[in-house]
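In this section we walk through a basic example: taking a raw amino acid sequence and producing a predicted 3D structure, encoded as discrete structure tokens. The instruction is simple. Fold the sequence below.
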Amino acid sequence: MKERNLQKLYRDQHIPGNYLREYSQYLFHLLANLDFEIIENIANLIIRQAKKGKVVYLIGNGGSATTASHFATDLVHCGIIGHKSIIRAISLADNVSLITALGNDKGYDQIFAQQLNSLARKGDVLISISASGNSPNLVEAFATAKKRGMYTVGLVGFDGGKIGKLADYVVQVKTEKGEYGPVEDIHLFLDHMLTSFIALTLQAKNGDGKTGHK
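The resulting token sequence is shown next.
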């Protein structure tokens, strides 16, 4: 398929609204080229470790911080079977007072690593959400996660960056560098794809047909 990027899509538009239609088609193209085997492996990892009592931690900056928060909410909600919670998930981007304290006292590159030092245990799962994959605070968090024996997942874009090389499981949205919007769109899609799969898998294994998934 011919290379596509947002600037080219906008430059080549000839009729009103064409860019908007082409943007949606571009997202379909990006979705179709994801590694779905790895995505399923990530879902199974979350289920397996959750059943062992392990915790899923999520991190990200900016728009990816909001995706981390959304993802954590959906993981907890989709893991409710009857009245029992199967999945424990925490977004480390949510505690503003702690993040600003750590940023001020330890440095912004330590805002997630220091939280993991306090909270994480061997066998827990760390999911990093980043378009570039190069944010220093995420890289530091991965170094800490490795030391603590955690499983690491990278949801990245562009060329994958450093996180793409460090993570145990990587889902890369391959776009031109700087195309944050489409990458972040797909990352939120991955949240819903994964949590719906997890909910249905837990439902099938539980056999009662009831989950807490939205």
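Looking at the output, two observations stand out. Residues 1-33 form one domain. Strands lie at 55-60, 80-81, 84-85, 88-91, 125-129, 151-157, 169-173. In the next section we compare this with other chains.
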